[in-house]
From TrEMBL:
Pfam families: DUF2162 (PF09930). The lineage of its organism: Archaea, Methanobacteriati, Methanobacteriota, Stenosarchaea group, Methanomicrobia. The chain crosses the membrane at residues 6-24, 36-56, 68-86, 102-124, 130-153, 165-185, 197-218. InterPro entries: UCP037409_transporter. It comes from Methanolobus halotolerans. This is Membrane transporter. Keywords: Membrane, Transmembrane, Transmembrane helix.
Length: 224
């Protein structure tokens, strides 16, 4: 029983961390409090709806979504990177478009909705609770995450240029996930150790990631 509750707490902590992405977009764009509350409430309602659908959605639909998972990751990654570049370019030209572009990082995306639904499904099964009750719990955690993180990130006093940087960083993170996760799954299926034969293939990817992050750091230092 203790293990079940520990797993449930771990999932809820993961949901809270997942909500930070929305909080970053709202906080860095300095979105009005009413709109932040509206967005957080929207996530709460969506969570309750998804929780209510637990047990009603056929497993084949989830398998279909899972098969599209990496494709969605790549698509979202490209959108985040492009929007981040656009936000920075406009800010450097004297135009603040963060009130619009923040939606790319803050509104529910297919990956986010899938994560919420799977979390509701696992919690409902583990805790033996009805789906709508689990949806309320998940929704409250996400709601609190968005509200609290928005307040914290707003206090940092960041500019839309920083929002663009975060978007590009998250885009690269999504892209790396889309490349590494299938390779990891394939390695596990082939029962091959991660250090056997795969180290040389992953080294260029690591170097490429460090190169990109170093470019972001240099650009930030140059801007200061």
């Amino acid at each position: 029983m203790n293990t079940i509750y520990a797993a449930a707490i771990g999932i809820l902590i993961g949901i809270f961390i997942f909500g930070l992405k929305t909080g970053i977009g709202c906080g860095f764009s300095k979105l009005e409090k009413k709109k932040v509350l509206l967005l957080a409430s929207g996530y709460f309602i969506i969570s309750v709806i998804l929780g209510s659908l637990v047990g009603l959605v056929d497993q084949s639909y989830l398998e279909g979504i899972a098969n599209l998972g990496m494709t969605l990751h790549v698509l979202i990654a490209l959108i985040l990177i492009a929007t981040g570049i656009y936000t920075q370019k406009k800010w450097n030209c004297g135009h603040d478009v963060s009130k619009k572009t923040f939606l790319v990082i803050s509104i529910p995306c297919p990956v986010c909705l899938t994560a919420l639904f799977v979390s509701c499904m696992i919690l409902a099964s583990s805790l033996e609770m009805s789906g709508w009750k689990v949806g309320i719990i998940v929704g409250l955690v996400f709601f609190l995450s968005v509200i609290s993180s928005t307040f914290v990130f707003r206090k940092m006093g960041r500019t839309p240029e920083d929002l663009g940087t975060v978007m590009m960083f998250l885009g690269i993170f999504y892209m790396l996930g889309a490349m590494l996760v299938p390779a990891y799954i394939k390695a596990k299926q082939m029962n091959i150790s991660a250090m056997e034969g795969g180290s040389f293939e992953i080294l260029p990817l690591i170097f490429f990631s460090i190169f990109i992050l170093g470019g972001f750091a240099f650009n930030h230092m140059r801007g200061q």
